[in-house]
Design goal:
2 copies of one chain form a homodimer. The first copy, chain A, is α/β, with parallel strands linked by helices. The first copy, chain A, has one domain: 3-Layer(aba) Sandwich (Carbamate kinase), CATH 3.40.1160.10. Helix content of chain A is 39%, strand content 20%. Chain A contains 9 helices and 12 strands. In chain A, the strands form 3 sheets. An 8-stranded mixed sheet of chain A has the order 3-6-2-1-9-11-12-10, sandwiched between helices. In chain A, strands 4-5 form a two-stranded antiparallel sheet. A two-stranded antiparallel sheet of chain A has the order 7-8. In chain A, β7 and β8 form a beta hairpin. The first copy, chain A, starts with a strand and ends with a strand. Chains A and B meet through α4, β3 and α5 of A and α4, β3 and α5 of B.
Amino acid sequence: MVLKLGGSVITVKDELMKADLENITRLAEEVAATGSKGLVAVHGGGSFGHPIARRYDLTEGLTSDRQVLGFARTHRAMVGLNALIVGALLEASVPAVSVTPSSFILAEGGRIASADFDVVRRLVERGLVPVLYGDAVLDRARGCCILSGDQLAVRLAVELEAPRLVFGVDIDGVYTSNPKLDPGAKLIDRLSLGKLGELVEIGGALTTDVTGGMLGKVSEASAAVEAGIEVLIVNASRPGVILKALRGEPVTGTTLVR
Amino acid sequence: MVLKLGGSVITVKDELMKADLENITRLAEEVAATGSKGLVAVHGGGSFGHPIARRYDLTEGLTSDRQVLGFARTHRAMVGLNALIVGALLEASVPAVSVTPSSFILAEGGRIASADFDVVRRLVERGLVPVLYGDAVLDRARGCCILSGDQLAVRLAVELEAPRLVFGVDIDGVYTSNPKLDPGAKLIDRLSLGKLGELVEIGGALTTDVTGGMLGKVSEASAAVEAGIEVLIVNASRPGVILKALRGEPVTGTTLVR
């Protein structure tokens, strides 16, 4: 099973490099309560990732000394956030092991081009819980790119043939329109890939977040749905939701279906 | 060029998980002063690595839940030490990037069995300074093992065809006998692999450290010497020595030769 925790859940928005330790601790305890066997976790960067990458113009490549230092600093920030999450999991007696995306993944044009997940598979088989994250990685075309936790989580779920992929975000799921702007917005319980296409055409119908929005997340996740993986988008900010979702119990959220 | 910093230089011996921040900061500044281009750094674990691995009996495998948690905790401790070193390098404006050995290396019987150093090579080509470390890694035969920074540094130097491999330790080099016990011990300027064999036969002639001793280090390094790499053992505790060694300037120490 793959659990992706959104950056907006584990960090404080608009405060540079501030982790939401309360949420992190609670989520670690929920993961511990599931027994955590067979789990791979991935987390986003929130206020640790993109703000720093942006400051150094990393999207424009890796040519100047300043960008090279920016790549190093962005990675460092993500390592710091990852250490907090792994620390919280270990504190809850979950045998969490940080796995560093930029140490073994190469991208091309922003997409994973080369990655061997053999070590991750073996860690899971040994009873460990690998914890990966969105990271600054080398890119054959652009020099470097920001690999999103969403892309990574979907790829992991597909490669490891996970039965379920849970996205923990800071809203209840995918809505018919932006619930923060439209009081008539309704949560979509089951969203088919066909219906997704319609929503994309309507445009702006899905709420957005810092890493490309719910739309990006759902589009990214469609590869997992195609591979037959049960994909669930739930609110990780609400206590007990991740615990239920990991256990496969009924929970408020959006299930993506073919 | 590959620089290995011994655990005894960057941590305080006999104090669990205590880093020697003074040495770390000074060494980071020496690395910065070289310009740091084309450099790969590796560090040992000192009081962050083996004491924790031992506490959880990791050398006996990865079968009990306790050992699984111990693997995770040992790795976590090493990530913490690595963060201090990468942090000091970044502080000195060296674009250091932590590269996590256990994320892509598999061992077998305690030796590296599978490792793709393509990412490390590309990071160096891009002007970044990868910083690796001795780590708890999965082992096909034993379940897990402690991969020493020495083994890793030698392997990196050979695979990346480094011209020079510098071991920074807490004594001036290899002596004719243990300098801490024998006042007549003499530093060996140039040590041939043949002469090394003799010293091994005499036995106990080389000073020891926690990771298997200078003898282990020199035996490990012989693969690099065979590959035509200049291998230097110098005292990283003395200010300015690593700076000189990296620059290729004359410095007190032991050079290993064929």
